[in-house]
Amino acid sequence: MIAVFHRQSLGVSGIDAATRFGVGSTALSTLAMLQLLVYAAMQIPVGVLVDRLGSRRMLLAGAAVMALGQLLFAVSADLVTAAAGRVLVGCGDAMTFISVIRVVNVWFPPRRNPLIVQLTGILGQFGAVVSAVPLITSLHAYGWTPTFLWAAGLGGVALVAVAAGLRDRRPERAPAASGVRAAWAEPGTRLGMWTHAATSSSAAAFTLLWGYPFLVQGQGLSPRTAGMLLTSLTLLAMACGPLLGHLAGRFPLRRSWMVLTIIGLTAGAWTLVLLWPGRAPVWTLGLLMVALATNGPGAVIGFDYARTFNPAERIGVATGIVNGGGFAASMSVIALIGVALDLRGGYHWAFAVQYPLWLLGAVQVMRYRTRARRRASAPLTPAPAPA
């Protein structure tokens, strides 16, 4: 929750940040992208460190680094200092997620793991809620520096909570290089990576940047209606997570079919909206929100593959590969939509750039599902659960 709060805190303070640093929207978006790129680049290195040092140490380090980043952001008066603060926030954020996933993997029974991971993601979303109205209210009431100083103080809360409440299980240590190579060579890891990439990218692009402009400028909705649709997407995703987690744990042989169904539903909903003559009616946009709500919970199935097909000593690096690949796909879709908007000038053409990724993702999921099953059934090989 605290990591998600730190991650989202720039987005809701964008107008104040532009005024404080005297920059335009391009420089401000660069600040946000820098934080996210650091988060993506740190996935595999952090995964290696989590496997070697354990979750407790990495969570303590992540909380401290995020707190330091927010402290620097609180006192920054120029864009360079602010950028350094957001880099630290992105770095500490990367340390947190993989560490929490490993805690779930080593402390909960395999059948419960998918549900617990989904519930963890839902709890994390409350951090996004706290980063909205309370943070904006504090900015208007107390100003920039006091607001981000108390935000940095949340890092201290996380430090105390982890130090007092978390016991760690440290698996057998494996050499870092061999851990990365072995995790990448495992077809189940790449199955998880493509699952994450194909299911998460559309909703990520929609919620992080392009959804609100599409609804208001492209579909002519009022800001209030657009906000209600985006809120409904978040609430539907929170409701969908436990259901998919329960189904993935109860029917592990059908996980890949769940993934392919989510890809198909998302592509189908977008096709309905994009091919509708003129502006799509609100009920079709509501169906789109329902389809997009399955994306985040569907992507979490990718982490379940990382757990299923990798031993405990390399869960961290396998999770990093899955998360990094999915994040790279989301960033690619965000960038391609922007390029398409500049070239064609219409949202319908811009959002059509998603179709090649869905097709590639579905093909790769089926390809690595076959390889993972073949490897699982090979003699003299430890047999993880099928895909």
UniProtKB/TrEMBL annotation:
InterPro entries the UniProt entry points to: MFS (IPR011701), MFS_dom (IPR020846), MFS_Efflux_Transporters (IPR050189), MFS_trans_sf (IPR036259)
Keywords: Cell membrane, Membrane, Transmembrane, Transmembrane helix
Predominant place of localization: membrane
Keyword NADP found: no
Major facilitator superfamily (MFS) profile domain residues: 1-373
Pfam families, per database record: MFS_1 (PF07690)
Membrane topology qualifier: Multi-pass membrane protein
Record's protein name: MFS transporter
